[in-house]
Structures are given as structure tokens and as C-alpha cells.
């Protein structure tokens, strides 16, 4: 495989305003995510065998990565995978709530969509330092809310993320300053439930 590349955003930098300011989106995508991609490629430079793997495969099986570059792949491979999904699961004009199988699984697992949101927000607010709050599924379709530190991916724990919010300060500080809970609450306005539902279906059958 050729080098890992920064995916193009499926919308303009200002598309998610007022929830996420254009300047945050621009720095987040063109600087932060781009740096993870660059650093991942640098780490893999001397390891042609690993260059044929996708970033998802790399973080899914960190045991297959030599110790010398394990931390770099965990942080930067994770950063690449996490942010690629993050851009995909947001949209300026999505449905306000999920439907079908996903909604049923949310109701079964958490009671209601509002209960799920509260749980995701709570895990994000409580994440000390930097990291992510996630909705993950197993192959049976059972949902769970978890949080990971740094750029650790749920894939490393054998869990498939279908929705995740970035609680690194770079994701919100320019606009929300210290008010991470306000960012977490507002973020649901830009969730792309259609894509989350697609990821849920794909994870269940695989
Ligand atoms: Mn980020």
C-alpha cells in the first residue's frame, strides 16, 4: 500500500457552525489530523510489511507492531483512524435522531436516546486530560459507552466504534474554552445518524 493520506472533509470548514467554529475545524483537520498521518508514515518507513496494512488493521492488532514503533503507531495510527471516523459521523444537515435497528438497540441498551447522550457526555466530561468518548458495538450488536485516553482506539480493545466525540482541547477550546460539557451537549446537533447507522449494520454482520 502507498502512504496513508489525510482524507478530504466531506463538507466545508464552516459547515458545522455554529456548533463547531470554522477555525477549529480547519486547525483540527489540516494541522492535527494531518500531523497524525505524517507521523504514522514516518513510523512505518522502515517497516515495509506493515505498510500494506490499513490504519484500522494496525490499531486492531498492535501486538503485530514491533516495540520500537508501537507507541508511535498507537498514537498516530489511532489519531488517524479516530479522526477519519469523526469527520464521517458529522454533517451540517443530518437527521436529528436515529431510526430502525440502531434506535431499537439504543432503547434496549440505554432506555432512550437522551439517556445515551447523557452517558456519552458524562464519559467525555469525566475523561481526565485528553481522549475520546465512544458508542461502540460488538459483533452481536450490543452497544456500550466507553472512553479512551489519548488517541487509543476502541478497535485495540476488540470493540467497534460507531460514534465518537473528541474531547481533546484542540477540538473545542477556541470556542468553548474550559466548558467541555457545553461542547459535548451542543455536538449532538451535527451528528450524522445515517452514517452511524451504517457503521452499526456493518459491524453487526462482520
Ligand atoms: Mn482531535
Describe this structure in words.
With 206 residues, the protein is mostly helical. It has two domains: 22-88, Helix Hairpins (Orthogonal Bundle), CATH 1.10.287; 100-205, Iron/manganese superoxide dismutase, C-terminal domain (minor pseudopilin epsh fold). Helix content is 51%, strand content 10%. It has nine helices and three strands. It has helices at residues 22-44, 48-51, 55-60, 67-88, 100-110, 113-126, 173-176, 180-187, 193-205, and strands spanning 131-137, 143-149, 160-166. Strands 2-1-3 form a three-stranded antiparallel sheet, with helices on both faces. A hairpin with a 5-residue loop joins strand 1 (131-137) and strand 2. Helix 6 packs antiparallel against helix 8. It is globular. The mean pLDDT is 96. The site of manganese (III) ion has 7 residues, from helix 1.
Notable features of this structure?
206 residues; mainly alpha; Helix Hairpins; minor pseudopilin epsh fold; 2 domains; three-stranded antiparallel sheet; 9 helices; 3 strands; globular; binds manganese (III) ion
Order of helices and strands: HHHHHHEEEHHH
Rg over CA atoms: 17 Å
Provide the residue-averaged pLDDT: 96
CATH topology of the largest domain: minor pseudopilin epsh fold
Apparent shape:
globular
CATH architecture of the largest domain: 3-Layer(bab) Sandwich
> Which sequence of strands runs across the widest sheet?
2-1-3
Largest sheet: 3 strands, antiparallel
Percent helix range? 40-55%
Strand content: 5-15%
Give the CATH class of the largest domain. Alpha Beta
Question: Pairing-aware structural class of the strands and helices?
Answer: mainly alpha
Number of strands: 3
CA(first)-CA(last) distance: 23 Å
Bound molecules: manganese (III) ion
Count of helical stretches = 9
Amino acid at each position: 500500500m502507498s502512504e496513508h493520506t489525510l482524507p478530504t472533509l466531506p463538507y466545508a470548514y464552516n459547515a458545522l457552525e455554529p456548533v463547531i467554529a470554522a477555525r477549529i475545524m480547519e486547525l483540527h483537520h489540516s494541522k492535527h489530523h494531518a500531523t497524525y498521518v505524517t507521523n504514522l508514515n514516518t513510523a512505518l518507513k522502515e517497516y515495509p510489511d506493515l505498510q500494506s496494512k490499513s490504519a484500522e488493521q494496525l490499531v486492531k492488532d498492535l501486538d503485530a507492531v514491533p516495540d520500537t514503533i508501537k507507541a508511535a503507531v498507537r498514537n498516530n495510527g489511532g489519531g488517524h483512524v479516530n479522526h477519519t471516523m469523526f469527520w464521517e459521523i458529522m454533517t451540517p444537515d443530518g437527521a436529528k435522531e436515529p431510526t430502525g435497528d440502531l434506535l431499537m438497540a439504543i432503547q434496549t441498551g440505554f432506555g432512550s436516546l437522551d439517556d445515551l447522550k447523557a452517558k456519552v457526555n458524562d464519559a467525555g466530561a469525566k475523561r481526565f486530560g485528553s481522549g475520546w468518548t465512544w458508542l461502540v458495538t460488538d459483533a452481536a450488536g450490543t452497544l456500550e459507552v466507553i472512553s479512551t485516553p489519548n488517541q487509543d482506539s476502541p478497535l485495540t480493545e476488540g470493540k467497534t466504534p460507531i460514534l465518537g466525540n473528541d474531547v481533546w482541547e484542540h477540538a473545542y477550546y477556541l470556542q468553548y474554552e474550559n466548558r467541555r460539557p457545553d461542547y459535548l451537549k451542543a455536538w449532538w446537533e451535527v451528528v450524522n445518524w445515517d452514517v452511524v447507522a451504517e457503521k452499526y449494520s456493518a459491524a453487526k454482520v462482520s
